[in-house]
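STRUCTURE:
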């Protein structure tokens, strides 16, 4: 399997439900800012609403980090609206909910379960240049953590701005980073 790090985002145009209205989201909307694509298997399921609620609870922090969240499933934008109207957890969502009914993004990111017509739980961080800088893929039964995702976004942003430094495990903004070099070899 080919890795996706550094891969440029494809051109796309997808219907979405955002801000209590139906909209269209394109790759052009992502230019110049950080983005997170948060794929999940389907609306009206079990783990998915807990994840979308966790993202909603942390959405202001993502916005402060100049990052937009795009939740994505293969359900229609109409089903997204119905789910948001019906679920207390999903009702908190303010970020765009994209509809990938033609499976274009799911295939591009390599997470489409063809026989089911659903995506795996895939999370992709995209930089302002439209390149994938981090991703993880889970099987359907494993939920994700928005706080850890936000930490990864902030670390990716730091490394993007400070190309001579790297972020160690559990790094948080304001903590020490590392400057790779021969003087660190065997010292950590």
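SEQUENCE:
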């Amino acid at each position: 399997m080919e890795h996706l790090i550094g891969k440029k985002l494809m051109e796309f145009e997808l219907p979405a439900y955002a801000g209590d209205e139906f909209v269209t989201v394109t790759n052009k909307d992502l230019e110049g800012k950080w983005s997170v694509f948060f794929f999940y298997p389907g609306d009206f399921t079990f783990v998915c609403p807990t994840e979308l609620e966790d993202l909603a609870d942390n959405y202001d922090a993502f916005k402060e980090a100049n990052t937009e969240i795009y939740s994505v499933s293969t359900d229609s934008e109409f089903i997204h609206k119905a789910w948001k109207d019906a679920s207390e957890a999903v009702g908190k969502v303010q970020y765009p909910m994209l509809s990938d009914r033609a499976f274009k993004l799911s295939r591009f990111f390599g997470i489409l379960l063809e026989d089911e017509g659903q995506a795996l739980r895939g999370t992709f961080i995209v930089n302002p240049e439209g390149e994938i800088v981090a991703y993880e893929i889970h099987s359907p039964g494993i939920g994700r953590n928005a706080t850890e995702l936000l930490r990864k976004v902030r670390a990716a942003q730091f490394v993007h701005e400070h190309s001579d430094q790297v972020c160690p495990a559990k790094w948080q903004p304001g903590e020490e980073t590392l400057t790779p070099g021969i003087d660190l070899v065997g010292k950590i």
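REMARK: Strands lie at 13-18, 21-26, 34-39, 67-73, 97-99, 112-113, 118-119, 121-126, 132-138.
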